[in-house]
Specification:
This protein is mostly helical and about 475 residues long. The chain has helices at about 5-10, 10-30, 35-55, 70-95, 105-120, 125-145, 150-180, 185-195, 200-215, 225-230, 235-240, 245-260, 265-285, 290-315, 315-340, 360, 365-380, 385-400, 400-430, 445-475, and strands spanning about 60, 65-70, 345, 350. The chain is about 75% helix and about 0% strand.
């Protein structure tokens, strides 16, 4: 018998955010822009509250298996909601400084967080699609939020068109899977797949993988990423690169492991190919970039390849590696973008690598922070990014994918060039001629960036003592809601 009380308790974080977003929307609509700061503060409190509720909500499976709450979804939701709260903080300050502050910004992030929570807890194909689209619709609007900027409008349009294509792929794949299994639920699909996957089911699985690969910007489905990263507002890009990627990767892992665990050999081949292409595109594509945000786009493509390698392992160690890798990547990325938002010369944002020349003279602490984050993202020990890749490569080796792991290591060495170039420009190049000193940095972005760098090293060594057991428990109890 359906227990609505239990269902609402298990889905309490999403219910809280859904109701809260509607209240914030009404508050902004009736109060106007004079209540914009209040809406932002309430949105931050709402997201932090949702993270607390998620951490204490009961585990289980409700809505006829469509919604699953297990330790992995709880881990993901806490990280996603806290990252979303940071995105509101960074975006509120940035939009006010650029004169485009609107109360809709925090509301859209809260709505996207509802979709991301659905993605982390999706137990069937319908919940998967609802979560993906709820998140995506909010992100399309955020990409074009700076509506008077032609590049932002172009970014929003490209993201919408290609996002719609990926939605079509997901729907077509889901329809094939349903047609050949007779069920939408992952656990029931797994029974059919374990008995021998038919050709039609494999085709549906491939379409589903391609659609999800679009969402996480894995190569060769990455064509929207560099243009959107370059054109969208910087705080929006910081959000794109963190929480939605985390949610999509957890959804990816759940769909593959829970729905098609018995067909691991089939889908693992596809993910290996996508991972290898992502390594190559991310590493070599970034070498030619001069715009920092485009560079970070190619970096994200390569890093998604490592995350997909963790899923490819198909083991508990792979799931644990995925959670740790995405956690560290998310912290490094939000810190990098926060420091990018904090830098400008003469009121003009610093966007090109060459503009960082001589930064050590004007902003020595920020220079150190960017150096730490750069070394972390490229995987230099003992920074946070090293530990993320350490767990990923370890899981891949245990599963027998040592050749793929070796190629991933080679890609890391290639990608190290463009991070080391950033470090070299900051520390050793002379400031651009005719340019003044770097402007005073806004405190919100500066402190977020400094905190992220401090976590990357040395705080990560302390954080690992409790993050590693949490990730291991989430992986061990995966699907046991």
């Amino acid at each position: 018998m359906f227990d609505i009380n239990l269902a609402l308790h298990i889905a309490a974080p999403e219910a809280l955010l859904a109701v809260g977003s509607m209240i914030l929307l009404m508050l902004g609509a009736y109060g106007g822009e004079k209540l914009g700061r209040v809406v932002s503060l309430l949105a931050v409190a709402l997201l932090i509250g949702a993270a607390g509720v998620a951490a204490n909500a009961p585990l289980g499976m409700v809505f006829n298996g469509a919604f699953v709450s297990d330790p992995m979804s709880v881990y993901a939701k806490v990280a996603i909601y806290l990252a979303s709260a940071l995105a509101v903080v960074l975006g509120d300050g940035w939009t006010r400084r650029n004169g485009i502050a609107r109360f809709e910004y925090p509301v859209l992030i809260v709505l996207a967080a509802v979709g991301m929570g659905m993605m982390a807890s999706a137990g069937d194909l319908i919940a998967l699609y609802v979560g993906v689209e709820l998140q995506s619709l909010a992100l399309y609007v955020l990409a074009a939020f700076h509506r008077d900027n032609a590049r932002a409008s172009e970014a929003g349009l490209k993201y919408f068109v290609l996002g719609s294509l990926s939605s079509g792929l997901i729907l077509y794949g889901a329809s094939l899977i349903y047609g050949f299994t007779g069920s939408m639920r992952f656990d029931e699909i797994a029974v059919v797949a374990a008995g021998g996957a038919e050709t039609g089911l494999i085709f549906g699985l491939v379409f589903l993988i391609c659609g999800l690969a679009f969402k996480v910007s894995a190569a060769p489905f990455h064509m929207w990423t560099p243009d959107v990263y370059e054109g969208a507002p910087t705080p929006v890009v910081a959000f794109f690169a963190t929480a939605p990627k985390f949610a999509a990767m957890v959804l990816f892992a759940r769909a593959m492991s829970e729905g098609f665990g018995g067909a691991h050999d089939q889908w693992a081949q596809v993910l290996v190919i996508i991972s290898l292409i992502s390594f190559a595109v991310g590493a070599f594509g970034g070498l030619a970039q001069r715009d920092i945000q485009r560079l970070l786009a190619y970096s994200s493509i390569a890093n998604i390849g490592y995350a997909l390698l963790a899923i490819t392992a198909g083991t508990q160690a792979g799931l644990q590696a995925l959670l740790l890798f995405m956690t560290f990547y998310m912290i490094d990325t939000v810190g990098f973008f926060a420091l990018l938002m904090a830098l400008s010369r003469g009121g003009r944002p610093i966007r090109r690598i060459a503009d960082l020349a001589g930064l050590r003279k004007d902003k020595p602490v920020t220079t150190i922070a960017i150096t730490v984050l750069s070394l972390s993202v490229l995987g230099m020990p003992p920074f946070a990014g090293f530990w993320g890749k350490f767990y990923v490569f370890g899981a891949a080796l245990q599963a027998g994918y040592w050749i793929v792991a070796a190629l991933g290591l080679v890609a890391s060495v290639v990608a190290a060039f463009y991070y080391l170039r950033i470090i070299k420009v900051m520390w050793f190049d002379a400031p651009p001629e005719g340019e003044g000193a770097v402007d005073p940095s806004p405190r919100d972005a500066q402190w977020v960036g400094w905190a992220a760098a401090a976590f990357s090293f040395p705080l990560v060594l302390i954080a690992l003592t409790w993050l590693e057991p949490l990730a291991r428990n989430a992986a061990t109890s995966f699907g046991a809601g």
